[in-house]
């Protein structure tokens, strides 16, 4: 049966709603069940069949005053080392980007040395500094010293541990900061210069706030890594931090596994707190990035737009070939604008 234009528009039946069928993933369910079973077997075995864990011993020492005191030293090592490393890392990053070739080479050599040698070796070397440099002498060169200070009195093992950790970490922070600075478009720097801002204001008010979005995530990872790296300061030797303190207690009680569990519990607790802080810092510096409205709507209604050259209170109307009227010009002419 042929439909003619005089019969009016064709009436279509109301379409039936789509019944979406959720795609099933049976192997995912099987894999999840297997993981749960394996975890349950491990937990049961550790709690019942492994007396070497000695959970009663863990509960005895988890809040021991010596352990709590060691946590304080571990946090101090982490905070002091990271503060120095961040400041020195920013300076090294600026030196790496300097137009002066001598400054660039000095920064590169620093990074080459401290990134190319193990941190444990570096800490061992810092522990030997009082033996290598027995005293520090101040005065006019090629004359008798005015002031002589014994290195052991000036630099404690705690101070040497902080210096060793900070200098090693500064090499990594320099690359993180440099990557963040390079991530900011060069046009931002040029625009700030065009506005008359100096280097300091350009860096602190334009470049660094944008670079922080790139710098914060790896810096948070470095803080967490530094917390765990403090367990190596026994090479200095500094023996009052968490791991070494728990190891010394285990040497007396002959229970190394429970003391390792105690140290691990506190490392996990502190790391969890740091991860929460990192999350909120990343959220703060990522404001306005990657956020787009779900629906894009025009700022004005289409019907309110008039055509240039048309006058009167009514909107311009065009007659199509089939007799209909429209505010859109017909496309019969060259370039789509002819009547």
Automatic annotation (TrEMBL):
Gene3D superfamilies listed in its UniProt record: MetI-like
Domain called ABC transmembrane type-1: residue spans: 71-278
Transmembrane segments: 29-47, 67-95, 107-133, 145-167, 257-281
One Gene Ontology cellular component annotation held by this UniProt entry: ATP-binding cassette (ABC) transporter complex
Membrane topology (UniProt): Multi-pass membrane protein
Compartments where found: Cell membrane
Matching Pfam families: BPD_transp_1 (PF00528)
Lineage top rank: taxon: Bacteria
InterPro entries: AA_ABC_transptr_permease_3TM, ArtM/GltK/GlnP/TcyL/YhdX-like, MetI-like, MetI-like_sf
Keyword terms, alphabetized: Amino-acid transport, Cell membrane, Membrane, Transmembrane, Transmembrane helix, Transport
Entry GO MF terms: transmembrane transporter activity
Biological processes annotated in GO: amino acid transport
Family recorded in the similarity comment: Belongs to the binding-protein-dependent transport system permease family.
UniProt cross-references to PANTHER family, sorted A to Z: L-CYSTINE TRANSPORT SYSTEM PERMEASE PROTEIN TCYL (PTHR30614:SF0), MEMBRANE COMPONENT OF AMINO ACID ABC TRANSPORTER (PTHR30614)
Protein name stated in the entry: Polar amino acid transport system permease protein
Lineage: Bacteria, Bacillati, Actinomycetota, Actinomycetes, Micrococcales
């Amino acid at each position: 049966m042929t439909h003619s234009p005089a019969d009016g528009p064709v009436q279509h039946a109301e379409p039936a709603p789509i019944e979406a069928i959720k795609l099933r993933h049976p192997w995912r369910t099987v894999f999840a069940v297997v993981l749960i079973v394996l975890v349950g077997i491990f937990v049961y075995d550790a709690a019942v069949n492994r007396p070497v864990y000695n959970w009663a011993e863990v509960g005895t020492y988890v809040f021991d005053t010596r352990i709590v005191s060691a946590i304080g030293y571990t946090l101090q090592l982490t905070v002091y080392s990271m503060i120095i490393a961040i400041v020195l890392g920013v300076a090294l990053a600026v030196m790496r980007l300097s137009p002066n070739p001598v400054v660039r080479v000095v920064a590169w050599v620093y990074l080459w040395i401290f990134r190319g040698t193990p941190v444990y070796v570096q800490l061992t070397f810092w522990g030997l500094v009082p033996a290598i440099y027995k005293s520090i002498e101040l005065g006019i060169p090629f004359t008798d010293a005015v002031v002589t200070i014994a290195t052991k009195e000036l630099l404690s093992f705690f101070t040497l541990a902080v210096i060793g950790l900070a200098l090693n970490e500064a090499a990594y922070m320099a690359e993180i900061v440099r990557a963040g600075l390079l991530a900011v478009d060069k046009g931002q720097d040029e625009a700030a210069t065009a506005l008359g801002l100096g280097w300091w204001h350009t860096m602190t008010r334009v470049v660094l706030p944008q670079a922080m979005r790139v710098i914060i995530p790896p810096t948070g990872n470095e803080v967490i890594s530094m917390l765990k790296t403090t367990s190596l300061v026994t090479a200095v030797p500094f023996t009052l931090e968490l791991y070494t303190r728990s190891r010394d207690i285990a040497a007396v009680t002959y229970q190394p596994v429970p003391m390792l569990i105690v140290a691990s519990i506190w490392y996990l607790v502190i790391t969890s707190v740091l991860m929460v802080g990192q999350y909120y810092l990343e959220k703060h510096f990522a404001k306005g990035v990657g956020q787009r409205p779900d629906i894009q709507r025009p700022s004005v209604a289409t019907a309110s737009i008039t055509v240039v050259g048309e006058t009167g209170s009514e909107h311009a109307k065009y007659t199509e070939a089939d007799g209909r009227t429209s505010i859109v010009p017909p496309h019969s002419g060259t370039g789509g604008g002819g009547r």
